[in-house]
Design a protein that fits this description.
By secondary structure, the chain is mostly beta strands. The chain has one helix at about 200-205; strands spanning about 5-10, 15-20, 25-35, 50, 55, 65-70, 75-85, 105-110, 125-130, 140-150, 155-165, 180-185, 190-200, 215-220, 225, 240-245. The chain has two domains: about 5-150, Sandwich (Jelly Rolls); about 155-245, Immunoglobulin-like (Sandwich), CATH 2.60.40.10. The strands form five sheets. Strands 4, 5, 7 and 9 form a four-stranded antiparallel β-sheet that branches. The protein has a three-stranded antiparallel β-sheet with strand order 1-2-3, with no helix packed on it. Strands 8-6-10 form a three-stranded antiparallel β-sheet, with no helix packed on it. Strand 2 (about 15-20) and strand 3 (about 25-35) form a beta hairpin. The radius of gyration is 22 Å and the shape is elongated. The relative contact order is 0.15. The model is unreliable at about 1-5 and about 20-30 (pLDDT under 50).
Length: about 260
């Protein structure tokens, strides 16, 4: 692994050029099949390096979680997410925000608690950064990475949505009403985040569009929040829904 290692796709293979960090001259290359990975680590004498993936496209069901098979050993391994359309780091998903990646076969990668599943972008690239304190220290090793939907995972649920403590009230005097719900999890895992949408029509809400208010992902164990969107009109019907996430990063199947 050299300081910059950028792949290109050729048929069913990926080609990686390895750049010599001292001279800046391309010194070697390697290929790997698209559906598999190998061992990535720092080249001899290097203390830092990065590996950038090919573009990943968002599935219809949304982004899955990023899992890695890795061992940081005497160094550190971190991941960043790039917007493939601009090449820029997605805000909040840089190397600095990446939570420590521990040794494990299927370690979930998060950025200040947020997973890859929070993203709304259609295309991203991943950048893995390898660092070690000295050239003699053991290099961090990345054996594999995968972005796969969770299977066989017990999902949390939310029910009984209420506005100002009432179910489908016909009159609400508060211009910033409290929205609340009941949370549950099959494994008794606590709620770690929620996401609220408020829309002017059921059609927009069904499309997961909160034209009046989109709270974004709120990292909280609270089961309520005060409305914080566009000013509401009187004698008007509004529509809202919420999804919840447990402490292991699994979202409720439905809003």
């Amino acid at each position: 692994m050299a300081p910059d290692c950028v792949p290109v796709q050729l048929g069913k293979r990926r080609i990686y050029w390895y750049r010599n960090g001292k001279t800046g001259v391309d010194s070697n290359m390697a290929t790997i099949r698209i559906d598999g990975e190998s061992l990535y680590l720092l080249s001899e004498g290097e203390t830092t390096g990065a590996l950038e993936t090919c573009e990943l496209r968002r599935p219809e069901t949304g982004w899955p979680e990023l899992k890695v098979n890795a061992n940081p050993k005497a160094g550190c391994l971190a991941a960043a997410v790039l917007d493939s359309a601009t090449g820029e780091v997605v805000p909040g998903y840089g190397w600095e925000e990446c939570d420590a990646i521990a040794e494990g076969i299927a370690e979930r990668v998060t950025w200040q608690g947020a997973g890859l599943s929070e993203l709304a972008l259609d295309g991203v690239k991943l950048q893995f950064r390898f660092t070690r304190p000295t050239a003699e220290a053991q290099s961090p090793e990345l054996y594999a990475w995968r972005a796969l939907p969770a299977s066989g995972v017990e999902l949390p649920w939310c029910q009984a949505p209420k506005v100002e403590g009432e179910t489908n009230p016909t009159k609400v005097a508060n211009v910033a009403p409290e929205l609340s719900w009941e949370y549950g999890d099959p494994g008794d895992r606590p709620q770690s985040a929620f996401h609220v949408l408020v829309a002017s029509s059921q059609e927009l809400l069904d499309q997961n569009t909160g034209d009046l208010w989109d709270s974004g992902v709120v990292f909280s164990s609270e089961h309520s929040i005060g409305y914080g969107g566009t000013e509401l009109d009187s004698e008007t019907t509004y529509f809202w829904k919420v999804r919840v996430r447990n402490s292991e990063g699994a979202w409720s199947e439905q809003w």
